[in-house]
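sorry for the late reply, my laptop died twice this morning and i had to redo everyting from scratch. anyway the thing you sent over, i finally got around to it. pasting the sequence first so we're on the same page, its 481 residues, then the predicted structure underneath. double check i copied it right bc i was rushing
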Amino acid sequence: MNLRRPKSVLRLVLIGFSLVTLPLIFALVNSIVYVDRLVHQSQRAVFQTVQTTKNSFKLIDQVTAMERSSRQYLVLGDPSLFEVYQKFHEGFQDTAGELSGLPLDDAQRSLLKELLEKEQSLYDTLSEFPYDSEKSRLALSEFSSLGDLVSPVLSESTRLIDREINSIQKMAEEAERVLFWQLVAVAPVVFGLVVVFTALIARPIRKIDQSIHRLGDGAFSSEIVITGPQDLEYLGKRLDWLRLRLIDLEEQKNKFLSHISHELKTPLTAIREGAELLVDQVGGRLTDEQRKVASILRENSVQLQKMIENLVNFRAVSLRHSALYMSPLKLKALIEKVAADQELAIMAKSIRLELNLGEVCISGDEEKLTTILDNLLSNAIKFSSYGGQIRIRLKREGPNAVLDIQDSGPGIHPDDRDRVFDAFYQGGVLPEGYMKGTGIGLSVVAEYVRLHHGSIEIMDGETQGAHFRVILPVGGDGDMA
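ok and here's the structure:
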């Protein structure tokens, strides 16, 4: 099966787990084999050394017993004593036979052979000649030399123990060496397999994550192609279907915005012009109450016109049709002009407008900068309470122009801060009596600021209200006027 295109992630995980565990199982089995061999060698060595030592001491005891019983026999001449000696002789032969069956070296076997021949010669002499004969007495004196031969056998048995211990030690060293090199060989193989299968699993998942983020950022142009397990490839195809569906919905939305803004402009223009004529009393004098109603009608028509303009601006931004027409501009004059346009709305809520403006010139798009200032000031007016205050400060800091707009409204809730610049998001905290707008004003502001390579952020103000800070690069021709 092709590892690059397994049928499922589960199968890929199982294959990876199996291949990773195979070297470990091999290493474990090999370790068990070596440990088992070492245990068997140790058991055999312990058994042999115990048997060798036991039989060596047993030979010494039997030689002593044979010498004692033979002396009694030669002194007393009692046949029963010779039978006792004969039993010790048979036991000696059996013990010597057991000892010869152990893995002795040549020196030990030579000593043991000489000991057996010597003891057999003494037994044959005592069996053949009478107890009071000269041959028997001479044979009795040979038992001391027999004892002298048993002592070297015991010494050689100790050497056998040392040899077995050395053999075990060498085997242990060999096992340690083999296991070490086995670990050295297995570790990189296992690590390599882990890296390979981690990459095979993580790569398509990472691509899916990146594709989802691109969809969330509104980047629909790139086709989504996921390679890897078939179930993840299928998920990639469904994401690409979602991308195409979002493109279709985006086109429908833009068409709707285009049509609705166009259809609303004509009747709104007539309403606004009619309201202006009423306020200017072109059709005749109005009472105070009538003028008040006409002023409210004009103010709301202006607000509605700004909403439609925001929709048009948002459509241009979403379609990436916003080009910059750069020219040297005096920000102070631009801010004062926008404030003058908003004077009626400011007076209607008895808001105190505090301007602290430095003379800063920048290179920018006048229409888009006006939209930025107008939306920020309109937002501050809408959210400020009756009789509140709005502060606007402008200064230059190094290569940047810094604009601060702070109102005295309820402020921006912490839960809304991350989304306040998202299109169509209006937040959860609204002032009393505030009529909901389109929710796209600040998103247009953020996009136009970005087009000027600037930034906008929400500051933690000293007072309760919202505090927006816009930072714009002055540009090559900008300086203090």
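The radius of gyration is 54 Å.
thats about all i looked at so far, will dig more tmrw
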